[in-house]
Design brief:
The chain is mostly helical. The protein has a two-stranded antiparallel sheet. It has one domain: Orthogonal Bundle (ABC transporter involved in vitamin B12 uptake, BtuC), CATH 1.10.3470.10. Helix 1 runs antiparallel to helix 8. It contains twelve helices and two strands, in the order αααααββααααααα. The protein starts with a helix and ends with a helix. A hairpin with a 2-residue loop joins strand 1 and strand 2. Its main location: membrane.
Length: about 290
């Protein structure tokens, strides 16, 4: 039964992060996910300092606020003339360092250590459960389910708007779409997705789940809907194969899941028909050979 919950959690991380990561890739804001995955630590610590509780709701709320704060500060620094990558670097390192400092000062005796938040441990997920409406499931499954529903509802109700603000923000602005509201709403979902996956793969490896499947799907698909489906499928594939390989080789489950994401990306990048690196190289060599023959 424990194996089932671990596999289900890993698959749900793959689905939730795969769904969320698509528009990060399309909006060319992939590295903001890295920043948010670290700065939510600041929000979690602040939430604990205020409530003195490790309740999941307050953790989610603190993470969402930290994610919004990160996005807002990056936007402010960009508006002030700083390049996006530099703005992300400044905000990311500053808020993460503050989170680590506050843990040391105010949460040293609480199970809120940096290693747990960053690396996670999916094998322990089945032991931390919540009972809601008579159903008992691991806390990570409940949190991922809630966040997945929020992501799906957001796409169902605002799919056209988020797609338009992604591909043609100028036109979206001229017809009156609230671009910044859509941007901050989406970044809130990224924050919630990140913290919901802490118990399974940790903040650092969440970045792999958010970016890897979506980047691979970008190579495979020519449409946004297709990219979303491919991204979720690849996330699940990486989670399941990563689990069994980690079990076979007695190594880190989360680390193997992230490694499988990289392996899947490289397979697609190298061997995809017509557009893969190997295919293009062979085609170029054949073309050069035919020119030489002439």
């Amino acid at each position: 039964m424990n194996e089932f919950w671990v596999l289900l959690t890993g698959a749900m991380v793959g689905i939730t992060c795969g769904l969320t990561g698509v528009f990060l890739i399309l909006r060319k804001t992939a590295m903001i996910a890295d920043a948010i995955s670290h700065t939510v630590l600041f929000g979690i610590v602040i939430a604990f300092m205020i409530t003195q509780s490790l309740n999941g709701f307050w953790m989610l709320l603190g993470a969402a606020i930290a994610g919004l704060l990160t996005t807002y500060l990056v936007q402010v620094l960009q508006s002030g003339g700083l390049q996006e990558d530099a703005a992300i670097g400044v905000v990311f390192t500053s808020l993460f360092a503050l989170g680590v400092l506050f843990i040391t000062l105010f949460a040293g005796n609480v199970h809120l250590d940096v290693e747990h938040v960053l690396m996670g441990e999916i094998a322990f997920v089945p032991w931390d459960t919540w009972s809601i409406l008579g159903f008992t499931m691991p806390k990570a499954v409940w949190m991922l389910s809630i966040v997945l529903i929020l992501n799906i509802l957001f796409l169902v109700f605002f799919y056209k708007e988020i797609k338009l603000t992604t591909f043609d923000p100028v036109f979206a602005l001229t017809i009156g779409l609230p671009i910044m509201i859509m941007h901050y709403s989406y970044m809130t979902l990224v924050s919630l997705t990140t913290v919901a996956a802490f118990d399974s793969v940790g903040a650092v490896l969440v970045v792999a789940m958010l970016i890897g499947p979506a980047a691979t799907a970008y190579l495979l698909s020519k449409s946004v809907r297709g990219m979303i489906l491919w991204s979720m499928a690849l996330g699940v594939t990486a989670a399941i194969t990563g689990y069994y390989l980690a079990k076979l080789w007695n190594t880190s489950i989360a680390g193997m899941m992230a490694s499988m994401i990289g392996i899947l990306f490289m397979i697609v990048f190298l061997f995809m028909p017509h557009d893969g690196f190997v295919w293009k190289t062979l085609k170029r060599l054949k073309l050069n050979a035919s020119k030489s023959a002439l």
